[in-house]
Amino acid sequence: MNISEFFLTSMADILVDHPYIEDFLTSFGLIVKPSDDTLQHYLDNLDQDNLEDLGVSDEQLRQSLDDFLTGMLALSDPMDKVESLTIIGGHDKSGKAENLELNLKPGEVICIVGPTGSGKSRLLADIEWVAQGDTPTSRKILINGQVPDSKWRFSTEYKLVAQLSQNMNFVMDLSAEEFIRMHAESRLVTDPEKKVAQILQQANELAGEQFAPDTPVTSLSGGQSRALMIADMAILSKSPIALIDEIENAGIDRKKALDLLVQEEKIILMATHDPILALMGDRRLVIKNGGIDKIIESSEEERKNLVTLEKLDNKLLALRNRIRTGDTLEHIEGV
Amino acid sequence: MRFLTISGPPSSGKTSVILRVIEALQAREKKIGVVKFDCLLTDDDKLYAKKGVLVKKGLSGALCPDHYFVSNIESCVTWGHENNCEYLISESAGLCNRCSPHIKEITAVCVIDNLSGIGTPRKIGPMLKSADIVVITKGDIVSQAEREVFASRVKQVNPGAIIMNVNGITGQGAFELTSLFEDASDIETLKGKVLRFSMPAALCSYCLGETRIGEEHQTGNIRKMDLQEGSAE
């Protein structure tokens, strides 16, 4: 469908087939009723005094509708496939060159480690901004080996990075199901109901404690919120890169969560200092003084220790559960 | 001199965002001026002065704040130009949501925050709908999905704008926003420029200081609600 076809469609059909156009018009305060008149006719016959009251000019409304429809058409286009992301090194805070060219591929998990203030956020921001030597680090980011189109920078449809921050507060007064549906609708996915069901099911598989679809998002536990957001990111987000700021070790199966994102062929960048998560990663970028100081490949020897670490972790989890169920901890030898 | 109008609802984070942008501009060794418009009082001018930028504040007091803005902005621009500012930023809050300080051919920025509720973008008029750049703040407080839903609501009412997430506290995104400011309109004067959209008309007895309630005290530009209509909000 091209844009001019929308304008020749009757308002009755628009309401049924393209509800987002109704949503657009009502968001400007306009009243939309089904009729045989075309969208063009509707626009041509708007009351100019009413538009002035609504704070929009005729010209601006038409321009906005055009931009809006262009964006909507782009949203239904398949996302350009990102086969690789290349980070070409710049320099650290003292000007020392990073001397590296790092190639990241879908399905890879890369951990970013380093103390607070070392420059982890700047690295993540360089990627999100698709830096071209124009940030304080002078790093360059290539997509599929090439200098990327500027749409990756500015367009909300082509967001390169979806970020899962540590903060999982919700402020919207909606149930989990309503919230995910609203998110799905904003992304214009086909068959939103199916996607919503999928996400809720997946989130419940990741969460330690189950929750019902009608649970208000504001009452979800920390683990449940994380599970919901990871499932949402895996299933709804078209962004090829997932940026994760630590997955707290509570109320969520972290291994399953990572596997889910890996399955969806995302490049996963994770800021973490958790030994288990770090070893689940393929590589670790060590950040120091604003630059990538070192790249550590997770070794076989390290991976072997994962079993021991997981045992330790499970011990702690078992103790947590005993506390949760009202048990006491005088005897913890057998755990 | 590059000139930008920055506006947004009260407490959306305008001042914090501008402060972060000032830091990034100062790192590029730019001379900056800020004009802060407010109604009753503001101490934000002190925050700006602390950063070492030139600052003027204008308090509209008993006048409509946006009308006050438009009657003063031309001389502010002249002031900035005479003081050799390379960047001049005007900050004002669009208090009734129908007013907007944005001027044609002058880079217009609207700051709005994730916590204001998903219904808010559609409630704001030309201040948001005609902005070139929309900055969304307080993203660290909400989840990714909520940020996306909010941004899509902003996009719905201003699909042509560049929409950016900026954190006024950590400064995340401020560097990138500053890069956009480098392309802001380069002007010496506002002579001959026009507002992007008319401001709401107000010329009634209450504009002139009337305080008594009642039809007999109302003259001038008065409009009555239709209370007979069933679905009135």
Question: What's the short story on this structure?
Answer:
The complex is a heterodimer of chains A (335) and B (233). Chain A is an alpha/beta fold. Chain A contains 14 helices and 9 strands.
Please tell me about this protein's structure.
The complex is a heterodimer of chains A (335) and B (233). By secondary structure, chain A is of the alpha/beta class. Chain A has helices at residues 3-7, 11-17, 19-27, 39-44, 48-54, 58-76, 120-128, 151-154, 176-186, 192-206, 222-236, 254-263, 275-280, 300-324, and strands spanning 85-88, 101-104, 109-113, 140-143, 161-164, 241-245, 267-271, 283-288, 291-297. Chain A has three domains: 3-76, no CATH class; 104-117 and 145-303, P-loop containing nucleotide triphosphate hydrolases (Rossmann fold); 304-335. In chain A, the strands form two sheets. Chain A has a six-stranded mixed sheet, sandwiched between helices. A three-stranded antiparallel sheet of chain A has the order 2-1-4, with no helix packed on it. The longest helix of chain A is centred in the C-terminal third of the chain and has 25 residues, at 300-324. Chain B is of the alpha/beta class. Chain B contains seven helices and seven strands; from the N terminus they run βαβαβαββααβαβα. Chain B has helices at 14-27, 44-50, 65-82, 120-123, 126-129, 144-157, 174-181; strands spanning 2-8, 32-38, 54-59, 87-93, 107-113, 133-137, 162-165. In chain B, helix 1 packs across helix 7. The longest helix of chain B has 18 residues, at 65-82. The termini of chain B are far apart. The chains are: A alpha/beta (335), B alpha/beta (233).
